[in-house]
Amino acid sequence: MTANTSVVGRETNWAGNVTYRPDTIHQPSTVEELQAIIARHDRVRAVGKKHSFNELPDTSGALVSLANLPPVVDVDAEAATAYVTAATSYADLSRVIDQEGFALPTLASLPHVSVAGACATATHGSGVHNGGLANSVNQLDLVTADGDLVTLSRDADPEQFDGIVVHLGALGVVVNLTLRLVPHFGVRQHVYENLPLDVLTEHFTELVSSAHSVCLFTDWCGPWLTQVWIQRKIGDPVTRVEDEPWFTATPATAPRHPVAGFSADSCTAQLGIAGRWFERLPHFRPEYTPSSGAELQSEYLIDRGDAPAALHALDHIRDLIRPVLQICEFRTVAADDLWLSPAYHRDSVSIHFTWIADAQAVLPVASLVERALEPFQPRPHWAKVFTTPPETVRSRYERLPDFRSLMGRFDPTGKFRNAFIDRYLGENS
I need a labelling partner for 241 at 20 to 30 A (CA). Which of 50, 249, 310, 426 fits? Predict the structure, then answer.
């Protein structure tokens, strides 16, 4: 059977800062076609929604998209799980499982990303009790280097599975996943403006723990948060930090976009209007271009206890950050056991930068940010822009030697490796 292909010239990622090397993206319409593609090529990588801001998905061999595989979202109400095809977006997944009475505990700021890609790179939402999206994965179907389709599950191999879920595409191509679900819930979202940074020195934990999800924004024009987004589950006990004397931020009087000057039409509803979980937890609506559109992104995860000191360290260089910044966001992520997760065994705060779309101007500033955060041992998000030396990245993942063993087991010839994998996961890079 011959696989469908799409000849696209040399295609770029979503941001346009990376041009993929292959001039053909293979688009199989069946799993069998995918297996045949993988079996006959020496090098293979899968590309999802192209929302990686670096060369993580690229390859010198065959680039594969699963967008043409028949979409499936199959909810097992008794088991409280959903079986979903890899290329499914979180927007599409969420609508189906909500109709069946279920939800995911958290969602990324963009509902446009694919389930497989987000889980493979440890993408996350926000909330002190909410782990990353990959924590919901209970089982996956993987096409390995020889073209075999294997099913791997937490129940069958709980220890190894913690190493498999966040895999960066280095073990094979995931075609289906089974996700654990929770009962669906409603959310009210409130936005507040202009909270002094000094408040966070004593009240950071209190603030970020005050609701199911709390997101903090600053444009680094001064020592303050420009916006505080508080997302409360309907029915949860109310912890009203808004009534505390130290919480001097004022309620927004109209919907806000995180980036000043942008229309809030693309953002999820605010002003305390009740909505379903998937209509409030992301920042952006799926029918709009996510975020600002023309941008680069960087993100670093640090220990949550270090967050106030880290934010003050960044405040010292805000004059250098501001000229290339659109917005900076702080979110919390619960610790997990996933070997390559930046939140591995560490309750974390993510410090996310949405930069202007100018790599030449951004990269030196990203390096300055990394230097300011170095005392806090930041782990970069795998799919964002960063300049952290490979040896430093490798030193921050204690289970990396075990993951290399998995690579040897699933991909002994290095079919799914590329320059990025060799650089950051290789033993002697």
Answer: 310
